[in-house]
Amino acid sequence: MTPRMTAQPLLSIEEFEELAHRAPETVRLEFINGKVEVKPVPDGNHGEIAMWLLEQCMQQRPDLRLYLEQGLKVETYRRGRARPDGSLTPRKHFAGQGEWADPKGVLMTVEITSRDSDTDRRDRWEKRDGYAAVGIPVYLLVDRERCVITVHTEPKKGEYRSIIIRSFGERIELPDPVGIVLETEELKEFAD
Predict the structure, then answer these.
(1) Integer distance in angstroms from the first to the last C-alpha of the chain?
(2) For residues 32 and 11, is the Cβ–Cβ distance under 8 A?
(3) Which of 103, 109, 159, 181 makes a 20 to 30 Å CA pair with 82?
(4) How far apart are CA 29 and CA 36, in angstroms?
(5) 129 burial class (0-12, 13-18, 19+ CB within 10 angstroms)?
(6) Torsion angle defined by CA atoms of residues 159, 135, 72 and 92, in that order, rounded to the nearest 10 degrees
(7) What are the pLDDT digits (tens) for 86-126?
(8) More confident: 118 or 79
(9) For residue 158, with 0-12 CB atoms within 10 Å meaning exposed, 13-18 middle and 19 or more buried, which class applies?
(10) Mind giving me the DSSP string for 41-61?
(11) Would you say residue 26 has pLDDT above 60?
(12) Torsional sign, CA 94, 31, 112, 136
């Protein structure tokens, strides 16, 4: 069962956005399930995985771009704000949008787990559910702790109905609308 919060948010979306705008560069803030979340600044291995994935996307789908750290409005009725490690979209998709963009048209979001106590709740549950709630077709979780890649697809009623899990080193296909195949042997170098 997925953990969910039902309490009223302590801040409005406008108050959160102002807080996030004024946060120091050493932290990234998100607003998930009505709570302010502090997202750790990525470490070197996290960055290497993001760049590896960016290269794979550009080589196989030059018509698309993997935007790193673009803020998205997530959850039903836009009550949340998440900053995925990556958002795959057509070129120039976010042009003219602000710090917190509409998720419509995002083909895939990516999260890479970090070394912090909240990664389980945040990346494996709450953000996954937020991305499903707004209908993002593919959610890719690169889990450094477990050394697996999990592909979530078929969002319906706030949940992904299909899940594929592969260990680092195995081949995994990202289905349409992404249409990319990942050979993940290199990820073994960056596991925690």
Answers:
(1) 27
(2) no
(3) 181
(4) 7
(5) buried
(6) 150
(7) 999 999 999 999 888 999 999 999 999 877 666 555 666 68
(8) 79
(9) middle
(10) PP-HHHHHHHHHHHHHHHHH-
(11) yes
(12) negative
Q: How far apart are alpha carbons 78 and 69 in whole angstroms?
A: 18
3-state secondary structure of 164: strand
CB atoms near residue 169 (< 10 Å): 12
Q: Which two tokens stand for residue 132?
A: 């499903």
- Upstream peptide bond of 177 is cis (omega within 30 degrees of 0): yes
Asked if residue 137 lies in contact with residue 151, where contact means CB atoms within 8 angstroms, the answer is no
pLDDT at 1: 43
Phi/psi for 178 (5° steps) reads: -80, -55
Rounded to 5°, the CA angle 186-191-192 comes to: 165
- Where in the chain are the domains? 43-190
Q: Are 76 and 158 in contact (CB under 8 A)?
A: yes
Whether pTM exceeds 0.85: no
- Polymer length of the chain: 192
CATH of region 43-190: 3.90.1570.10
SS3 (DSSP) at 126: helix
Residue with tokens 């959610």: 139
Q: Is the sign of the CA dihedral 38, 149, 48, 73 positive or negative?
A: negative
Strands 86-90 and 64-67, bridge-based pairing? antiparallel
